[in-house]
Structure prediction request, 785 residues.
Amino acid sequence: MLGRPEVPADRALRLAQLGLRPGATVVPLHRTAGGGRVVAVGDARVAVARVTLGSIPASPPTDER
Amino acid sequence: MAAVLPGRRTRTRTVVTRGCCRDASTGAVRAEGSRTGASRGPGDGRTVALVGAPNVGKSTLFNALTGARRSVGNWPGTTVEVGRGSWRLPDGERVTVLDLPGAVSLDPVSPDEELTRDLVAPAVDRPAPSDGVRGRVPGAVVLVVDAADLGRGLYLVRQVRELPQRVVLALSMMDVARRRGRAVDVAALSAAVGVPVVPVDPRRRDGLARLGEAVTDALDSAAPVPLPPPQPLPGTGGPAGEPVDEPVAVAEQIDELGVAEARFAWVADVVAASTRQCGEAGRGRADRIDRLLTSPVIGPLVFLAVMWGVFQVTTRLAAPVQEWLSTALAGPVDDGARAAVGAFGLRGSLVEGLLVDGLVAGVGTVLTFVPVMAVMFLTLAVLEDSGYLARAAVVTDRLMRSVGLPGRAFLPLVVGFGCNVPAVSATRVLPDARHRLLTTLLVPLTSCSARLTVYVLVATAVFGDAAGNVVFGLYVLSVLLVVGVGLLLRSTLLRVVGDEPLVIDLPRFQAPAPRILLSVTWGRLADFLRTAGGVIVLAVTAVWLLSAVPAPGSSGEDRTVTAGGAAATSTGSPGSGSTGVEGSAYHALASASAPVFEPAGFGDWHLTGTLLVGFVAKEAVVSSWAQTYSVQEEAAGQGAAGGALGERLRADLDRSSGGHPVPAALAFLAFFLAYTPCAATLAAQRREIGGRWTAVGVGVQLGVAWLLAVVVFQVGRLVA
Prediction:
């Protein structure tokens, strides 16, 4: 489960609109050529740079999910 | 069952329930207001805008509705400008349809999204319209939403529903949603959102009539009551109920995120009310393919292999057809044209020179490259429609970032491999102004398809069976030039370039639809032929005039004059069938520039003359060669690789390089790749980055191209 990204608000908003928002559950899938990762956001797949991923705190999903 | 919208007289269609994942996907709810209502609502009642996130099928829908052949692709950023077409509604009325750039939301992060926002949600404090579109409010908005990923599309829906706007929701990708085990209840969705919802499949043209009916109803009705702007949710800094750890700098930003959270809550409610998951998502195979295509090691190798395959297929598959066309052009077509001119008593006249040696030879020679272009456009369309290009953007992200560009900059650069002009416009997908500037300066270094004709001609003439490898090598060189010049610019003129980490949506893979592939291929081919046709007629006429005019200081007596026709001379006769070109203004201009290229091994006026023509348009280079060599008579009956024109080129390269035609050909091709693409690209650059930076770009292109050509020739000569 994702926390609040430590990025400027406009970038945080765009991440949220792509599904990477506080409270959302994402599944990291695999590393990419640029050092980032492809993550599953529901049915969608988003490639995210390592530096951006590093700015988003994450914790294991809670049991109720 | 179908929904009835509160407060509205509603016509409904039967929604057949056949079990999970099938129910409610076969019906559409049409909401009607009063057809005689006094309130017509906002906007231009006869204009409909297609709006939606990238990759939901807006342009495909636009093409299906209007019969247009707008470029479509399964990757973000395909549409960066507004497309306009005419749509005949079921009641016979024609309305204007606008295809707007993809937008995730009405909070733009790039100029293309800004354009969409300005059109859908105009405001008095924004700039006045300047392009005939901006600021003109459409009468209705068709929001295209991906049924397989409903949650993401609904955020934009919510924002548009907060505006006083007539809205119809077109639900695409229903088949994908079903395959993913997701059932969308169309009626429930319509009730939750408060607008008509119509499932469509533009690739198969399903649901278009129903969409037309819904739009007709919407246009004839008052706009629905807008949803109230949401109030910021408390505790928006983290998961629900958790306190904000590190608040952002200003309260306004917190409010913005809080409002967004309120919208997300609405989206979650709508999704819960209108969808059911009744099976496994089943993306395992797609994820495994993604893992390979974007992996750190295999991904770049696959990318190179794919690109190599494209150019092998392009050169080898099209070669037999091209050869057949060349033979036909040199024989029956040329004979027929001369006979037709002779029938009017114009044999041996200036008119024969212009028509037969100029226009027929020029246009005909370019037509012989139609098979090459068609195969290339088709293979690129396959890559686009399959969803591969977005993966390629991920693979090249590190390469792009090495020159200070985000991975998304790869997308306009890929467009540049088709044509540089739309590629310059495609830089608008980049949020950062300096990224756009740098990318715009690099676009001319991407090898556009018009250059391919010259590559194939020269490579076939000089390298024979290895032509495919040479052409592939030129495309690799193009990528290296983008990186090299990018580094050069970043370390000199553009030291401050912002950093934008990669965040890119990977569209789902799909089997390319033959109808889409053929439509895209034909559209691009027609564009090429239209541009090439117009440019060739102008260029051929200009070269013909310059060839017919003696150079200043020349009496004309030193011009080669042959009684039996130009083909008897080595210089040919572009101006007429009876006089040579030496001593003409064209010859003088081309000869004046020739010494500049002697260090590069191609200081021959035939070659440098076409470089001048190529500065205006690369499409006209082959035709001007055919014109200046005037090879029709000798070429008759020859079917050798590259034909007689190729043989003349090889002979000139051999002579100008002192017996080193191979390095001279490579140097010529390297220069041809790197120097200014065409006047149209310069105009597009001037529009995007201004005249000063465009001039800087031209200087960089010419300098780099000349230096590269000299290095290639001198090193090649030593090695040889």
In short: Residues 6 and 35 of chain A are 19 Å apart (CA to CA). The beta strands of chain A are 27-31, 37-41, 44-48. DSSP finds two helices and three strands in chain A. Chain A has one domain: 9-54.
